[in-house]
Amino acid sequence: MRPAGSELPPLEIPLTRTLIVAGAIASRDYQDVHHDPGSARDKGSPDVFMNILTTNGLVGRYITDHFGPTAVLRKVAIRLGVPNYPGDTMVLTGRIEEVDGDTATVRVVGANGLGTHVTGTVTVTVPEEARP
Fold first, then answer.
1. pTM over 0.85, yes/no
2. How far apart are CA 15 and CA 18, in angstroms?
3. How many CB atoms lie within 10 A of CB 34?
4. Residue 4 gets which letter from DSSP?
5. What is the model's pLDDT at position 128?
6. φ and ψ at 58, to 5 degrees?
7. Number of domains making up the chain
8. Fewest beta carbons within 10 Å, which of 43, 78, 121, 125?
9. 2, part of any domain
10. Ranges assigned E (strand) in the chain
11. How far is CA 46 from the centre of its chain?
């Protein structure tokens, strides 16, 4: 496990309309603002936008992509900021804040062209026998 203070490599995620709509459907979030551009505009948004469950899943993916297939997410705590709209890119970055044996706490930030979309912390365990 890398030491506290280590930076994770960034992950760029293209924010396609398909990703936004598919994430909403997969998480059974049928609110029209996540799949219907007309309804989103009627409610004051310029377009459909990503739901929090999709963002949460992408944060989890970012961590498990870095720590490997045996990584176990113990806690994910996120807060949303600006929306993720189609046509933009979200860049996830992370910094290991604390390491305790086989468990790390990682600070994660996801930003897009409008600013910070998500901030949070993830606690992840990587069994020692699975580490290189």
1. yes
2. 8
3. 21
4. T
5. 76
6. -70, -35
7. 1
8. 43
9. no
10. 7-15, 72-80, 88-100, 103-112, 115-125
11. 22
